[in-house]
Amino acid sequence: MQDGSRKAILAAFFANFGIAIAKFVGFLITASASLLAEVAHSLADTGNQA
């Protein structure tokens, strides 16, 4: 794997993980079921990149 590709994958991994954390905080504040579903979606995206 080229170094540029590795950096792009790592950047996307950490971005998706950060988004998942932000959505989870939003879920904790609002108790919105749709935000909890979005957390699962973001974690799935993160897992795909792992």
Structure description:
The protein has two helices and no strands. The protein has one domain (3-49). The longest helix has 28 residues, at 3-30. By secondary structure, the chain is mostly helical. The radius of gyration is 13 Å and the shape is elongated.
Shape summary: elongated
Question: What is the count of helical runs?
Answer: 2
Q: What's the Cα radius of gyration?
A: 13 Å
* Count of structural domains: 1
Query: Structural class, please?
Result: mainly alpha
Helix content: over 70%
Distance between the termini: 14 Å
Low-confidence stretches: none
How many β strands by DSSP? 0
Query: What number is the mean pLDDT?
Result: 92
Properties at a glance:
50 residues; mainly alpha; 0% strand; 90% helix
List the helices and strands and how they pair.
Elements: H1 3-30, H2 33-49
Briefly say what this structure is.
The chain contains two helices and no strands. By secondary structure, the chain is mainly α. The longest helix has 28 residues.
